[in-house]
Amino acid sequence: MPAKFSRLSADDYFNGIRAGDRMILSRAITLVESTLLTDKAISDDLLERILPFTGQARRIGITGVPGVGKSTFIERFGQLLVREGEKLAILTIDPTSSKSHGSILGDKTRMDVLSKLEEVYIRPSAAGSALGGVANATREAMLLCEAAGFTTILIETVGVGQSETSVRNMVDFFLLLMLAGAGDELQGIKKGIMEMADAIAITKSDGANIQESEKARISYQNALHLFPPDESGWITEVLTTSALDGAGFEEIIGVINRYYEHMESSGRLSALRNHQKIQWLNDLIDYLQRRQFLATPGMKEALKLQEQAVLKGTTSPYKAARTLVELAWNV
Ligand SMILES: Nc1nc2c(ncn2[C@@H]2O[C@H](COP(=O)(O)OP(=O)(O)O)[C@@H](O)[C@H]2O)c(=O)[nH]1
Ligand SMILES: [Mg+2]
């Protein structure tokens, strides 16, 4: 095997991570992303060991449709966080990037100041690689970064699909970036994603866009009043921002700080962290079940056949799933 794929012992990963060794951190993240059984044995051991050293960071998710300005925002906003003394780890998940690698390259060029800072670690995830394990791999990467001493974890995710909910369930604070559009401000935006957000920032509020952004801000803020309040009593705030001139950055830091104060009062943050752990457990059950399913002899082939039958319309997805599960587990 080529040297870059060689594995260390759980001990060596652990010591390297605790010493803040970036190279070893990167190799450990590659390890937790791996679906090889031999890797899983080491990574389970490693995760067990680092767990007591996790949980001290702020976990922040940043989402929004491609092109809304997530990477550019993180590049500038991240510099402000670093000036405030944060050690910043950035994990990016882009389910569209596994085919072209285009977005990952784009992200790299868009974070070139951050990527040179000693206080910053950037890791694009190998999205789509693991069998439904993207959520787990991201969560585990986050925990490894915490154990390596990072104090803020930013997870950038594209505002589409299942990865949204997964990321929502592993972060404390979820920031939705939106564009001020012409016409109906709410068009095309899934209500579900807005409901998940702890704050919404209208991006690219600069130059000729400022007025439009302010209008969008008011309109979203009004729309949010129609949603039932979050169970913790937090009210989603809507702001405007520009990654070109940093407008709105101080306000966004203010919202995040207020959010943590709100959550830390009366034990809500620890309840939230408990919820994240339970979610992790359940995600792992789904993942392990699926892995076991696919490891059962003949199941990959059987799955292919049922997929074809579903596409031909000779069976329904529900019936196909039942057939496969019965076949795999005799249930
Ligand atoms: N005018 C303006 N353009 C921006 C701003 N933020 C990002 N952009 C541009 O919007 C495009 C998409 O940005 P990017 O950060 O890659 O979006 P992502 O796909 O959400 O990560 C790029 O061409 C950026 O230069 C901003 O605050 N103001
Ligand atoms: Mg991006």
Automatic annotation (TrEMBL):
<protein>
    <submittedName>
        <fullName>Methylmalonyl Co-A mutase-associated GTPase MeaB</fullName>
        <ecNumber>3.6.5.-</ecNumber>
    </submittedName>
</protein>
<dbReference type="Pfam" id="PF03308">
    <property type="entry name" value="MeaB"/>
</dbReference>
<dbReference type="GO" id="GO:0005737">
    <property type="term" value="C:cytoplasm"/>
</dbReference>
<dbReference type="InterPro" id="IPR005129">
    <property type="entry name" value="GTPase_ArgK"/>
</dbReference>
<keyword id="KW-0378">Hydrolase</keyword>
<comment type="similarity">
    <text>Belongs to the SIMIBI class G3E GTPase family. ArgK/MeaB subfamily.</text>
</comment>
<dbReference type="GO" id="GO:0005525">
    <property type="term" value="F:GTP binding"/>
</dbReference>
<dbReference type="GO" id="GO:0003924">
    <property type="term" value="F:GTPase activity"/>
</dbReference>
<dbReference type="InterPro" id="IPR027417">
    <property type="entry name" value="P-loop_NTPase"/>
</dbReference>
